[in-house]
Design a protein that fits this description.
272 residues, Rossmann fold, seven-stranded mixed beta sheet, four-stranded antiparallel beta sheet, disordered N terminus, binds adenosine-5'-triphosphate, ATP-binding, transport, AAA+_ATPase, ATP binding, ABC_transpr_LolD-like
Length: 272
Amino acid sequence: MSFQNPQAVRPHAYQPAQTQQSNPSTPNQPGPHHAAPGHPTPGRPAQYGEQGQAVLGGHGLVKYYGEVVGLAGVDVAVRAGEALAVMGPSGNGKTTLLHVLAGILTPDSGEVWLAGQRIDNLGDAARTKLRRQRLGFVFQDNQLLAELPAEENVALPLMVDGVSRRDAIARARTMLAQVGLAAESKRRPGELSGGQAQRVAIARALVGEPQVVFADEPTGALDATTGEHVISLLIGAATHRGAAVVVVTHDDQVAARCHRTVRIVDGRVSTR
Ligand SMILES: Nc1ncnc2c1ncn2[C@@H]1O[C@H](COP(=O)(O)OP(=O)(O)OP(=O)(O)O)[C@@H](O)[C@H]1O
């Protein structure tokens, strides 16, 4: 499935990570954290040291759609500057996990913590604001607005948040230059290649300096070479800024670019 469209302090740590595998082929180490200073980082797996605090943690996540199990009790955490791949068979809960972690869906039980704040129990308006201000999203189909040039697509989330048009466009242009699209900033999505359009979507996801970027099959509509370029750009640009990245993917090459992989099978983290 694709995407549809922050005070309490968590009292205890948890132990999910024996079920999450490091990706040995990934040379990068996660960057510095930017969890709120002074917070005992909720959701931090016990083996993470002070250099690797979890910016995002899900604990005991359960989600049903009527009788259908979406998630059956998932523990997961991701550090600032770390890219986590979420893999597993179709229909086993990957997108559900992404939506619950991103505050798009509320879990039936369990908790989600973002940089020291429990977020699963916030109201709709607060979660919407949090998603806009602190999270970034990259979709399989870039979901750019066809009638707007690239720079306005990137500037839009900033303007919605009250940044002046002039400043938002300036930041959008800087961001587009960073994804190699300075020359394309005035083009509309229909005038861009699939890979270029996805780079615009990456610029849009990053322009607000999010703490976590969620991507659901971000390379699913691209050929292998373009997909590899796009995922490298996304992970490099996000983790360089200290953001965490959570990528749902069926693609081993995409997962290999991430620091760790977690497999979701039957709504649970698989140990196999
Ligand atoms: N809105 C919904 N209503 C009812 N059932 C749903 C809904 N969304 C997901 N499901 C069901 O929940 C289970 C998990 O779905 P989910 O989309 O999370 O799987 P997935 O691993 O992301 O699949 P895929 O790889 O095919 O995208 C599936 O059985 C699915 O049919």
